[in-house]
TrEMBL record:
<dbReference type="Pfam" id="PF03358">
    <property type="entry name" value="FMN_red"/>
</dbReference>
<feature type="domain" description="NADPH-dependent FMN reductase-like">
    <location>
        <begin position="5"/>
        <end position="94"/>
    </location>
</feature>
<dbReference type="InterPro" id="IPR005025">
    <property type="entry name" value="FMN_Rdtase-like_dom"/>
</dbReference>
<dbReference type="InterPro" id="IPR051796">
    <property type="entry name" value="ISF_SsuE-like"/>
</dbReference>
<protein>
    <recommendedName>
        <fullName>NADPH-dependent FMN reductase-like domain-containing protein</fullName>
    </recommendedName>
</protein>
<dbReference type="GO" id="GO:0016491">
    <property type="term" value="F:oxidoreductase activity"/>
</dbReference>
<keyword id="KW-0285">Flavoprotein</keyword>
<dbReference type="InterPro" id="IPR029039">
    <property type="entry name" value="Flavoprotein-like_sf"/>
</dbReference>
<keyword id="KW-0288">FMN</keyword>
Length: 94
């Protein structure tokens, strides 16, 4: 069995904020035990809403018709053993 694959998604607009600091600690911990870690910083990426075409319902391997930066993330999500979402909480909401 190969190393575990972890995807970390940073959702805060602050690159060095509390969410990013915690996500970096999770990444360091996962790497320290041999995991392969991919980190995606969403702020500034071109991510468009779903068109509800339902192509992904037919097969999770089908490519999304929306051509945005998620095309770089989808393959990593499909292969991931673990997903970490680091999102800030502002005024008790996400």
């Amino acid at each position: 069995m190969g190393s575990k694959k972890v995807v970390i998604v940073k959702g805060s607009p602050r690159r060095n904020g509390n969410s990013a600091i915690l996500a970096d600690q999770v990444a360091a911990g996962a790497e320290s035990v041999g995991a392969e870690v991919d980190v995606f910083y969403l702020h500034g990426m071109d991510i468009q809403p779903c068109d509800a075409c339902e192509a992904c319902h037919a097969s999770m391997e089908d490519e999304c018709i929306v051509e945005d930066d998620m095309q770089n993330i989808y393959p990593k999500l499909r292969q991931a053993d673990a997903l970490v979402i680091a999102s800030p909480v502002y005024w008790f909401t996400v």
